[in-house]
Every structure is written in structure tokens, then in C-alpha cells.
Model the fold of this input.
Amino acid sequence: MAAKGIRASGSGKPAGPGKPGDNPKAAAAGNGTGAAKPVGSKAAPGVQKAPGFDKPAAKGPGSSTKAAANGKRRSQPIPEAVTNRMARRIAVAMGVPSLLGMASFVVSYLLVSRGILDIPPAITLVTSGGFFLLGLVGLSYGLFSASWESQPGSLLGFEQIGVNMTRLKQSLKQPPAAS
Done:
């Protein structure tokens, strides 16, 4: 049994006069003290759903229903051999300076703690920062010095940098090919 002005959940009886300031229309629409409808069920009168609520989830990038129906897979734009070549060059050109940047802290600590040299902290910071900056340059160098052809190219790959920069600029100017 419900007290006057309070409706018991699921009693089916209309709400009484309630507290001052209550909106009787909101109580009748299910927004009052009664049980709320679960999310995803049919909306109560006067309640709007967010746009796109009933739409199925979008598929991830690169997936299409036509490709899935035909069983076709999107081709990789960069061959695996070229990707591996880039990864090796990046590991060397970025990894070595990054390791040196971390080692500069350790070496500086050992030299100062054993009293061999008195190195100001600013010198240690500038040295390590320079090595990390060199590592960032090495990242770009690793990408652009690798041969993007099936042949591996030279050891350092300086001749490939100009060719690969030109290819990159041309690809940015052209719209992607439709597949």
C-alpha cells in the first residue's frame, strides 16, 4: 500500500498529488517516481532517442561488405620485403642514438659519483637530449633511405632519400586510387 503522493513501483495506480513543483505530465510519461523503462526498449511518449541509436555498429576501417562477400582481401601498399628493410634501418638509425641518450645518464652518474669528473647536470641533459633528437632524425632517415623497390639498395642508402622524397610528394598530390 502506497502513501498519498508516493506511487509504489508497478502498482499500476496513477500518481497522487506528489511534492510541490512536480510535473504531473512528466510523472505520467514515466519520468516521475515510477520505475523507469530500461535503455533500449521502446521510448516512453515524449522521450526521444539519440540519432543513430538503432543503427548497427559501423565496421572497422578497411572493411567493406563487397570485399567480404567476394572473399577478397585488400592488398598491402608496401611489400613485406620493403617493410622489413625499413624496420631494420629504423632500428639502427633510431635505436643506437636512443641507447646512447639513455647511456649518457648512466655514464655521467658513474663519473660524478666516483669523483672522476665533475659534470654539471645541464651538460648531461644537453648531451642526452642531443642523442634523442638524433634518434628522431634517424627515424626519418630509416624510412627514406630504404629502397622501396624489390632490390635492397646500398648500405647507407643516401641515393634513395631524394627518390623516396619525390615519391612521397607525388603521392600527396594525387588522390588515392579507387579499389
